[in-house]
Amino acid sequence: MQYDSAKTAFAEWGVDTDAALGRLGTIPISMHCWQGDDVVGFEQRTGTSGGGIQATGNHAGRARTPDELRADLEFAYAMIPGKHRLNLHAVYLDTDAAPDRDEIEFQHFLPWVQWAGDQGLGLDFNPTFFAHSKADDNLTLSHPDAGIRAFWIEHGRRSRDIAAQMGAALGSPCVNNIWVPDGYKDTPIDRMAARARLDASLDAMLSKPQDRAQMLDAVESKLFGIGVEACTVGSHEFYMGYAIRKGTLLCLDMGHFHPTENIADKLSAVALSLDEILLHVSRPMRWDSDHVILLSDDILQMALELVSADLLGRTRIGLDFFDATISRTAAWVIGTRNMQKALLRALLMPLDQLRDAENALDFTRRLTMTEEFKDMPFGAVWNEFATRANVPSGQALITELERYQDSVSGRG
After folding, report:
1. Of 50, 373, 395, 412, whose CB has the highest number of CB atoms within 10 Å?
2. Does the annotation count 290 as an active-site position?
């Protein structure tokens, strides 16, 4: 068997492939619902998208209802080894009512909770601060109008309550991630005032204590967006400081930094000051373009940092991309499996030997080992992981992806 041969090859380096597979099987990935319908949601409210939230393409098969989206998700999860999570935005409520954002309640998401319980999935949540008439200025929590700020503060408060009830119902902490599109297209005069308003609004939103066994707050930065090119109020520095001061998770979105910045390098830096980190894994081909992630150097480096710095237990891994030029279900499967493949490669590295070489300042040996390891039979170990989980790989996977896409291509 290929796996037996690979197991022997890794054992020669002191690496236990069975242990790596066991560890990988315990790592949940929070898959984002918005890839399935191009970030449209089921609210049907008016307003611009704001902050550069755009999906490109019109490939056939977009989910139009909660039931269609759940069916697509069920197929995608069946193609992915392990047990995972679903990341919901507030605009994905499933109800015949039409609550505004400051009126949403747990009951409006109850079908999702019941479905997640039946599927054995955890849920994460996000208040939605875009695609609404009160966000058309690309200002929400930092808006000069106190009434608009109050509207969004209430939306955030209700989102936290919903997330906490989700976590309680499913017996797993729900990460409630806060991202706002706030910023200015041209150079502002008073950045401090806007950031002070954002800071105060966040404090008001987060003022109600929540059980961390049920809900975890996270804050997410961004470099810039369409319509906010000159200034993003919630910058990385702003939220890093806020997370450290307030004890929230800090969300590092790979698409929300300059393309030359290395997110892997940021992990250990912020981990010294934070209890937990949230990752949104994406591929910024040109800034925040949110392409389906590949098994690329950026992803491999990030996974290696998570393993080598012993951060897996302190990091919540989620995905954030939306490509409407290809099959949406295939995008989920490809991206999630690539995240798992990167983690597996990291778990199969001879880290003790590499650390010994590095601590001895033997950088030649370190470089030689890392380069030689690129030729190791990682694929055979991955295929064993997929086989044990009874999910297809290779041509069989392509056949399943194409079969499902054909079944949904008639959606209008």
Report:
1. 50
2. yes
CB burial class (10 A; 0-12, 13-18, 19+) of residue 299?
A: buried
pLDDT at 84 over 90: yes
Q: pTM of the full predicted structure?
A: 0.95
Whole-number Å distance between alpha carbons of 353 and 366: 9
pLDDT in tens, 90-136: 999 999 999 999 999 999 999 999 999 999 999 999 999 999 999 98
How many Å apart are CA 233 and CA 185, to the nearest integer? 11
108 is catalytic: no
288 is catalytic: yes
CB of 319 closer than 8 Å to CB of 339: yes
| Residue 220 bears catalytic tag | yes
Active-site option among 37, 253, 305, 323: 253
Separation of alpha carbons 113 and 100, rounded Å:
20
Selected catalytic residue, list 179, 182, 236, 323 = 179
Residue 253 is among the residues annotated as catalytic for this protein: yes
Catalytic residue among 288, 305, 384, 400: 288
Catalytic residue among 280, 332, 341, 382: 280
Among the options 220, 276, 384, 400, which is catalytic? 220
Helix (H, G, I), strand (E, B) or coil at 141: coil
CA atoms within 13 A of residue 307's CA, in its CB half-sphere = 24
Mean pLDDT of the chain: 95
Q: Which among 222, 236, 291, 341 is annotated as catalytic?
A: 222
Catalytic, 222? Answer: yes
Domains annotated for the chain, with CATH where assigned, are: 27-349 (3.20.20.150)
Q: Which of 157, 274, 142 is nearest to 199 (CA)?
A: 142
| 256 carries an active-site annotation | yes
Strand, helix or coil for residue 251 = strand
